[in-house]
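User: Predict the structure for this protein chain, please.
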Amino acid sequence: MPKRSGHNKQDQSTSSTPRKTGKQWAEEGDFHLKEKDYNAALAAYKEALKRDPGMVRAHIGKGDALYELGRYQSALRAYERAIQLKPKSVEAHNGKGNALMMLDYNEEALEEFEEAIQLDPENSNSYNNKAYILWMLDREEDALAAYDKAIQLDPHNAKAYNSKAILLDFLKRYEEAFQAYDKAIQLNPMEPKYSSNKGVLLQNMHLYQDALVAFEQAIQRDPHYVDAWSGKAQVLSQLKRYDEAAEAQERLEQLMEEGYGDDDDYDDFPDLIIFPKEYFQESE
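Assistant: Here is the predicted structure, written as structure tokens:
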């Protein structure tokens, strides 16, 4: 009787292990994207596209991962491929518009957001994107109208309230900005950037004690949130609490050394207060 091969069982086990489908790889990419592990997300979407080159979802996900990695030209190509496959994809047009915006093609970005709105006039995020690009084109009143439309379509869109507040702050319409920040915080109380942005507004209004409370609330929600630590250090100094300011500054520098606040704080750009230099020059 011939001897059985010693590796048959292992071979059989290996061959019976199911290979991931394109859909499963895409789902894995979605998971990593949500967890902000963008390199892992990109790798998973690439695997999905090896198995199904026509999967629109994977092309969009690939574009999203590339965008978050700062590879805007590559992200643009991914979104364009998705649009070739599905010309009426609102998500792909919004993604393409965001990539174009980061490449300083603002007029072209506006066209993509307009296309997304034509495809789905009820999409709040498309109006939110349109609002920001209008602001970049120095059309502030049109931008405010677009933010209002985004909020009208989705009254629970905290991101739109926050973005509107940033613009109102830039326009020095502080009371309206304050109300918009409060609404964003009410809708999403666990998001640290909204409290931190409110702290910047209060700082601009010279309400330093109230600003300190807002920055500390942001830190409670995320102890690694560097913008809040930066704001806290500044207002403590403005309150002449120099020892505490030095401690906050030391913690800020420690977090920066550990890699917090590099690029991931700008994932929801323009969710953070990023004003042109002229704004600060005027305020001095």
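The first helix runs from residue 8 to 16.
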